[in-house]
Task: inverse folding
């Protein structure tokens, strides 16, 4: 096991309220595997992964509990200095917004070389060659010349390629890609995802891929975690999640994917909006929007049901949904 | 780049001419003359004086002479300091003003940047609150209050520093502090807000995600963007600094440009006023140009 997240809680203190952005999240990632995390906006996907990297801005954020076991060590208990040695070296991250994630005042080459000089002890020339090599690998044409440029001279897709080159330049064991393609147009999206997939195979990197796009999840991941309101609602092997979802929320998400073979013009939408995670009631946070909800859902927090040893669902009626789907 | 600089330098000439023309017009509008005093002067003597200084000529002849002087960079002889060429007065007064001005700005930069940056790094700490409270006071305290207050305590109560006049380095301390107070405060606030914004930005998160030590995140990645507002402020700051020296030189009786400027105005000493105004406009314009050039070096997105 490369990574095991246990009962993670990350809260934000915001003018007297506590925003429970991540509240008891657990999942595992095996070496070489890709884990997909899906869920609506605000469900806590980014916060979960920023917590793994220990990059939560504090204040207002705080890690209120849980463990992140990476290769046998709890990252949340490491001294800052040790954690820094892991970041960029063994765990790297590609962020949601390529337009603002590179330093606008620094040459691309320098932004790349500083990572390998820091972690791999490269000298100036060696780091430079490595940077050019990485840029070539992610498909930047004329890489040696472009390395001397600044981020504003690159398009969004090219910047995301640079981010990926940067993230992979120390051959990390874990790559966290937080919606790496959301800000890009569709053709570029496919290129970037393909690129990550190939590079991952080459370097043997494990990956956490956060995305809104269930099609991407189906095509690239081994396991999926479905998040809602800071909690894991379902966790299953990818194939099984798509064929036999065990949670009403997952079913809703799957139904909202447009199906080109189907004639109906109208798209399915889960009714309502995600709840405010600062004041949740005692029951299931999805109950107000759920087609299966009964009185018990509003009163009692649902159990995390094991449908199979590797398939779990947070629902009072998990078994029923699971069986009904087959 | 070179073309940009040349163009900006060329524009300086008409701009300075406009400034001196307006100044010249304002001098005409103001009542009184350099020779008028408490006692009325006999008409015969007045006629003599007016002839001697060319004041009997039509206004356009006088104006033309002033413009021609300005273009030649020779502003003539002072009317009040008999026989003193304006250029010599400028040459003697400039080092005094430049010394306090430059020292005051350097002090303001050093203290402002350090305290503003520290405040941003420890947002909402006691350090942050203290330095921002001090900055608030610094901004609201005019130099004509700060200067005399410092003199009252440091010179007249504890006798540690000279209260006025131009002498050794010790004479510089109070004027420089008085002059820099407002800028120090202003720069501290600019640095703090600039750094806070940058420290929250995505590229700083990227820098941290790379595993850089916090001091490298700060020095290599955050300072440049965070202090950009301070750089842009440096252009207008010089203009304010020059008005500031007028007051400070008066308070501490220093023989600088500001002091001469006040006296020249009181005396209606036209050549001296025009000389100082022309000189100061050139300095301000050139300094603004330098700030723009520096901006281009700091921010690669800026192109000329
Ligand atoms: N710095 C912060 N301060 C306060 N609240 C925050 C902060 N960052 C995140 N949150 C809150 O945490 C919750 C989860 O946010 P998160 O960014 O993890 O969502 P997400 O699942 O990544 O959504 P998206 O798909 O839009 O990226 C949100 O309610 C958000 O408002
Ligand atoms: Mg996100």
Result:
């Amino acid at each position: 096991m490369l990574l095991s997240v246990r009962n993670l809680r990350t809260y934000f203190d915001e003018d007297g309220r506590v925003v429970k952005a991540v509240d008891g999240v657990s999942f595992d990632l095996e070496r070489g595997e890709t884990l997909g995390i899906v869920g609506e906006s605000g469900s806590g996907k980014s916060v979960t992964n920023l917590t793994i990297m220990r990059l939560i801005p504090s204040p207002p954020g705080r890690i209120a509990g849980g463990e992140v076991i990476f290769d046998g060590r709890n990252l949340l208990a490491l001294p800052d200095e040790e954690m820094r040695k892991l970041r960029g070296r063994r765990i790297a991250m590609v962020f949601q917004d390529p337009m603002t994630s590179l330093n606008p005042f620094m040459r691309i080459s320098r932004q790349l070389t500083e990572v390998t000089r820091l972690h791999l002890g490269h000298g100036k020339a060696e780091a430079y060659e490595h940077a050019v090599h990485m840029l070539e690998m992610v498909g930047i044409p004329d890489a040696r010349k472009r390395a001397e440029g600044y981020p504003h001279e690159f398009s969004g897709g090219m910047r995301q390629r640079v981010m990926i080159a940067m993230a992979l330049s120390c051959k990390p064991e874990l790559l966290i890609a937080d919606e790496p393609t959301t800000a890009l147009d569709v053709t570029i999206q496919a290129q970037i995802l393909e690129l990550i997939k190939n590079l991952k195979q080459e370097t043997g990197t494990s990956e956490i891929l956060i995305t809104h796009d269930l099609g991407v999840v189906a095509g690239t991941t081994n396991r999926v975690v479905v998040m809602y309101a800071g909690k894991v609602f379902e966790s299953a092997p990818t194939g099984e999640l798509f064929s036999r979802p065990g949670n009403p929320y997952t079913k809703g998400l799957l139904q909202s994917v447009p199906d080109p073979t189907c004639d109906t013009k109208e798209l399915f939408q889960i009714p309502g909006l995600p709840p405010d995670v600062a004041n949740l009631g005692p029951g299931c946070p999805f109950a107000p929007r759920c087609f299966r909800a009964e009185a018990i859902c509003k009163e009692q927090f649902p159990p995390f049901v094991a449908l199979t040893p590797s398939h779990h669902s947070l629902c009072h009626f998990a078994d029923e949904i699971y069986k009904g789907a087959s | 780049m070179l073309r940009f600089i040349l163009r900006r330098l060329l524009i300086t000439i008409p701009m300075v001419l406009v400034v001196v023309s307006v100044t010249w017009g304002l001098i005409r509008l103001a009542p009184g003359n350099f020779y008028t005093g408490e006692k009325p002067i006999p008409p015969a003597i007045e006629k003599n004086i007016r002839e001697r200084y060319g004041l009997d000529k039509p206004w356009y002849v006088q104006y033309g002479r002033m413009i021609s002087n300005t273009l030649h960079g020779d502003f003539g002889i002072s009317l009040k300091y008999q026989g003193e060429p304006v250029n010599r007065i400028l040459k003697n007064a400039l080092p005094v003003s430049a010394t306090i001005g430059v020292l005051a700005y350097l002090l303001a930069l050093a203290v402002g940047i350090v305290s503003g940056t520290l405040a941003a790094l420890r947002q909402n700490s006691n350090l942050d609150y203290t330095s921002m409270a001090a900055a608030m006071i610094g901004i609201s305290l005019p130099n004509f209050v700060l200067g005399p207050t410092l003199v009252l305590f440091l010179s007249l109560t504890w006798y540690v520093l000279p209260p006025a006049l131009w002498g050794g380095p010790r004479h510089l301390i109070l004027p420089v502090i008085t002059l820099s107070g407002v800028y120090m405060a202003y720069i501290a606030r600019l640095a703090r807000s600039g750094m806070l914004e940058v420290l929250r930005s995505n590229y700083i998160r990227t820098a941290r995600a790379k595993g850089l030590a916090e001091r490298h995140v700060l020095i290599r990645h955050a300072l440049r963007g965070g202090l950009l507002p301070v750089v842009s402020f440096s252009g207008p700051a010089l203009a304010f600094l020059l008005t500031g020296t007028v007051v400070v030189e008066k308070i501490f009786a220093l023989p600088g440009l500001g002091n001469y400027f006040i006296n020249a105005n009181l005396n209606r000493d036209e050549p001296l006023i025009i000389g100082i105004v022309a000189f100061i406009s050139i300095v301000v314009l050139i300094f603004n140009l330098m700030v723009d050039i520096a901006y281009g070096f700091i921010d690669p997105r800026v192109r000329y």
In short: The mean pLDDT of chain B is 85. DSSP finds twelve helices and no strands in chain B.
